[in-house]
Structure formats: structure tokens, C-alpha cells
Amino acid sequence: MSENQEVDIIDEVISQDYKYGFSTDIEMETAPMGLSEEIVRFISAKKNEPEWLLEWRLKAYRYWLTLKEPTWQNFSYPKVNYQDIIFYAAPKQKITLDSLDQVDPELLKTFEKLGISLTEQKRLTGVAVDAVFDSVSIATTFKDQLKEKGVIFCAISEAVHEHPELVRKYLGSVVPATDNYYAALNSAVFSDGSFVYIPKGVRCPMELSTYFRINAENTGQFERTLIIADDNSYVSYLEGCTAPMRDENQLHAAVVELVTHNHAEIKYSTVQNWYPGDKEGKGGIYNFVTKRGICEGSHSKISWTQVETGSAITWKYPSCILKGDYSTGEFFSVAVTNNHQLADTGTKMVHIGKHTKSRIVSKGISAGKSHNTYRGLVKVNKKAEKSRNHTQCDSMLIGDRSGAHTFPYIEVNNNTSQVEHEASTSKIGEDQLFYCNQRGIGTEEAIGLIVNGFCKEVLNQLPMEFAVEAQKLLAVSLEGSVG
Amino acid sequence: MNEIEKIGNQTLSPLGRVGEGLLSIKNLKAEIEGKKILNGINLEVKAGEVHAIMGPNGAGKSTLSAVLAGRADYDVTEGSVTLDGKDLLDMSAEDRAREGVFLAFQYPIEIPGVSTTNFLKTAVNEKRKYQGLEPMEATDFLKLMRQKMEFVEMDKSLTSRSLNEGFSGGEKKRNEIFQMAMLEPKLSILDETDSGLDIDALRLVSEGVNKLRSKDNAYIVITHYQRLLDYIVPDFVHVLYKGRIVKSGDASLAKELELKGYDWIKAEVEASM
Lengths: 483, 273
Ligand SMILES: Nc1ncnc2c1ncn2[C@@H]1O[C@H](COP(=O)(O)OP(=O)(O)OP(=O)(O)O)[C@@H](O)[C@H]1O
Ligand SMILES: [Mg+2]
Known about the structure:
By secondary structure, chain A is of the alpha/beta class. In chain A, about 25% of the residues lie in helices and about 35% in strands.
């Protein structure tokens, strides 16, 4: 990115709060509050699903009933009452849309307001977007152009009908319904999300992106994303999200599964900006997400990049199972917490194949009274000979009431592999701020500048236009962090 | 003593108001954590002038520059400072900078991940915003950069690296003067910019400063050595000791100090107390 842009961003960020906090007034169709087998059936019926999928959901639901909410995280939060959540909410409109003309203009306006244009001709850049509003996918752009290359990019509810063999083969293959409490819950009630398949030898001609928006009150969002990159293919995918400001906490429990075959690569980027709650810690999204990729084939690669600025609580560990020999897993993360936000995030790199490599770069920034935890596991199996990992974990504290915590777990079961861990904690110093001030740069801009510098390595991983967005977000989410 | 100071001010201030008075420091007292460091500084600097401030270690030279630049850690307990007639003490550090105060730090600060280019672009545009101007066009900015880099023969590769990170001592100092050239301040305070510079760099940096000198700006040069003043010839030399300016003179005072050290001045001060 050019220096020019970097500075423009800092310029642009004038004191403002969460700017995506508006809500859209639109007629909705919702499931009754609460969770039961009936609700699971209701959702499945709404989506007109085949029997096998209903069975799959019910199995997950029954399993979920036997589980208890996990308690090992480094924070506490008020218990979620699952009977107070609406598990399905959709704008009232025809289920299948032939063209954007049929989309409710209110919805198009909502996405325009969020900076996401769904009208293809208006988009300057070649990014295909799938827009998910509450429980359903509203529109997917550039479908035809992608189809020419054989790329499938659509709502998962659509893929269930159009590509049942692929969905059936891969759904739950990386994150089984029995994986954990939230994965089981998601498997039972997931509403929509994106499905991507890149055929053999195809380099996806444009960035793919899904934009998630929670709008309705008292709803949870449980989307499911499944991306498959067949042999020798490549795709870069980005996920973005926002929600209105509401006083109650809302649950977001997504599952993302990635599969790469021989010599394939998936680059998955997230710019997470769910509503973080107000300055006193009221409201905000609970972002409890299971993200995992498997490098099934040899020489394949999965790269997670995340910029986490939103949510009241973020609890997620995008992970890589490095099964194919010579496969590579990467995790680049920036997590910013301010006010009363909590983040417990990191990754798991499981080395199974020989000569597998993983790299972890985590940058945590804590301001206000927030707490930011990095938790990471690097596990090298006995047969994963000559594998390598490098972890770098840097924390930055702003003010003196915030906390940074690091829990690296390392497990190496052979003696030909090499694992390195580096960690640092720094504070934005008075000296640095004064130096900036002395050059005419105010304190808020100075923090933006210093934090963006601190995260540079990670931000550089993002596709250009999202990097710009991410930089803005970093600056905005730290506003008012120095008194 | 106070009476004499007052009289001194009265005799000086009319001169300061003749038209080109830029900086006016009156009876400035400052302390940190209850420790008194500046004990009544008086100084008038007119546009076009160069004032050298010398004095033993710990005399308060860096403290004076930090107080002028607006570092919040110091409490100003008495006195006033104006720049172009505006009350400087009432302004935030960033506004002082935007009004034209520049401090070349004795120990420049590192900012990882932020290039000098990006840093300066922000600084230049913040100042422009303050002046009600549009941000500078990228091409104009880069042109300005190139031009100013030549002043101090700054290596181009330095500007794309993280600000001051891993810079040698001399490179940091040169970068300070480069920034000064970019920001075109009215009042520049150079705090021991010469320390750490090799002989060639000292000449280069000094020549850079001389080129930037004009009838509209002024310099306060803090140094321990005559060497620098051979290049940047001061109009006045002041000796700061125990938080006070205890002696002022012309360029020859620095030469005298070089020969004799500070003991004779210290003795004079002790005797007069
Ligand atoms: N933060 C602080 N806390 C306590 N004392 C301080 C602080 N900062 C400065 N001082 C003291 O104030 C006095 C003046 O320091 P200052 O740095 O201004 O001296 P100086 O004249 O610049 O010296 P040098 O020639 O060594 O650079 C010193 O005694 C120093 O120890
Ligand atoms: Mg000093």
C-alpha cells in the first residue's frame, strides 16, 4: 500500500464511535424464540433441505444437549440463555432470486451504507461478494464470471441443492459436529454462509468475499462456510462483519472449514468488526467461532489472516491440520481490545505430514480495561519428521489498566523437528507519543500510527483494499484509549 | 534578585517588541516530581537570530527545550513564554509544533513499523490541516522530500525504514535535521545535535542549518562544544547553570568557555549568592 493511503486513513479517522451501529427496518420472518428439535426441523424445512441434512442437524442437536459450555477460557461472561435466542431470522422475500432487481431496496441500501455495493457495475474492483443478512444469503455477485472458470461461489443453502455431492462429502469433514460445544450448536442450527469450490488447476480470477450482517434483535448468527481448493488451485477469500448497537449481547457461533488438496492454496482473511458493546461494557457480540483448515494434499497451504477489532468477546482459534507432506500453515493475527472487550484467540498448528511448516505471527493490542489473550498450540506428531514452526507473539499495552496474556502450548514428538517461539510485550511509551506530538501529530493519530506500525507485518498480508479498511478500523477502535 | 530580573525584563522587552521578536521567555520556572529544575529563565529571541545555550551537564538545557516543546511531565510553576505574541504554555505540544516550534531531540525516539516518509507525511499534513490547507499531493510531497534530503545528504534508503529503528547515532541526528527541513519551523531548538556526528556529518548538518537560516526563523542551539559553533555562528551565547541563564555574550563567550571551562562562571555565581 502506498504511504499516501496510510496517511489518508489516519486523516479520515476523526472522533467517531462504532459507525455500523444502525439497524435496518425490514419485515422479517423469524423462528419462535428458543431451541428445540422443532426449531431445528423448522430451519431445515425453511431451507427445503434433503433428509440427510436434517438428520445430520438432529444428530448434532442431540449431541449438543449432552454437552456443557466450556469453561477453560481466560475470561468469564454471563451465561448465554439459549431459550432467549431466535435461531432463524430472514428478511421476507422470495427465497430464490434471479437478479438483484428482486432484492429489497432496503437491503441493498443497508449494504451500500456499509460500503458493500452489490450492484456489480458499480464495483470498481474485482471482488465477488456474498452478502449474508441475519440468517440468509441475500446476493452473490460475479457468479457468471466465476462460473466460466468453473469456480463455485454461492450461499451454502444453495450449494446443498446445486452441489449436494460436494457439500455432503466435505461438510463436517474438518470440523465435525461433535468437535466442540459451539460447533455442535452451529451444526444443528446453521442458517447460511458461503460455499466455495475451486476446481483443479484454477487460480480464482478475483477475490471472494462474504459480508455478514446481524440485524435482527435477539437473534444469533450461526453461519457456516466451506471452502474447497482442489489440486493446484488458489483462492483468496475475505470475510467481513458488522452488527447494530444493541444493549443485549448477541451470539455469533460460526464454523468455517477449509480443505486444500495437492499444491493448492487458500488464503483466508477476516476483518472482524462486530459491535463491541459500549464504553461501560454493555451489549456487544459474543464471537465464538470454530475455524479450521486441513492441508489434505502435499505441498498445499492454508493461510489465516485476521484483524479482530470488534465483539464484546472474541473466542476463536483458526487452525491448520498439516496432513499433506510439505504442507504449510500460517496464522497472522491482530487482535485489538478496548474498553471492556475480551479476546482469547490464537491458533492450533497440528503437524502430521513430513516436512510440514507453520508460521504464527500474533499482535495483540490492549487498551482501556480490556484483556487480550494469545493461546496457541503447536503440535508435531511423531511421524511429522523435519517439521518446523516459528511463532512470534507480540503484545502492546495502552494505558495501565489493560492486560495481555500469552499461553503458548508446544508439543513436539520427534527430534528432527524444530519449534521456535518469540514473545514480547511493549507499551506505547510517553516518549513515543511526545515525539509524535512534537511533530504536530495529535495523540489519537499518534496511537493510530504507532499501532499500525506495530501490526504492519500482519496488515501486509491482507489484500490491499482490505488492508486500508483494517487500518481505519484499528485507529477507530482505539479512539479514546488514552485519557 | 527578583527586582533586578524585573528591571532586566523591562529593559529587554521593548526591544523584543520592535517587530521581529519571536520567542519571549520570562521568569520561567519548572519542576518535575517536586524537583525544581528551571529557576527563572529569561530569554528573548528575535527572528533571524541564532542563540547558543551551553552549560554543564544537568544544568537544565534539555529540560528547557522539553518545557518549550510542551512535554506534559514538567510542571511550569511560574513565568510566561510567547511565540509571535501567542501564549505558548497554553497550547498542547502538537499545537506548538503546528505553530512552528521544532525540537531536534538529544535522543531521537524509535517507532517500529512506521517509515520516516509516512511519519513526515502525517506531520506535514497535520500542520497543513491546522493552517486550513488541503493535504499535500503525494507527488509534491515526494518532491519536497527529495529536495530536503539533499540538504543533509540523507540516504534515501533511510526514509523507507522504520523511523529511527536501528539507525546509527549519527543517522538519527541527521534524520532530525531532515525533519526540521521538511517542517520549516519558525523556532528550532537543536538539543546536542552535534553529539554523535562524525566530522563530515557535523559539517553537512551545520551547512544544512545555515542554508535554512532566514530572517524569518530562529535557532536555539544547545551544545557542549565550540566545534559546532564554528559552523553555525551564533549571535548570542548563554550559559545555563542550575536552571538559570547566568551569563550571556556573543560568539566569543563560547570560545572563552572552551578554553577555561565552567569553573570560573560557577565561582562567579556562588559569589553573587
Ligand atoms: N524525569 C526526571 N525526574 C527527575 N529528575 C529529572 C528528570 N528529568 C530531568 N531531571 C533532572 O533535571 C536536571 C536537568 O536535566 P537536563 O536533562 O535538563 O540537563 P542538561 O542540561 O540537558 O544536561 P546534559 O548536558 O547532560 O544533557 C538533571 O539533574 C536531571 O537529573
Ligand atoms: Mg541535555
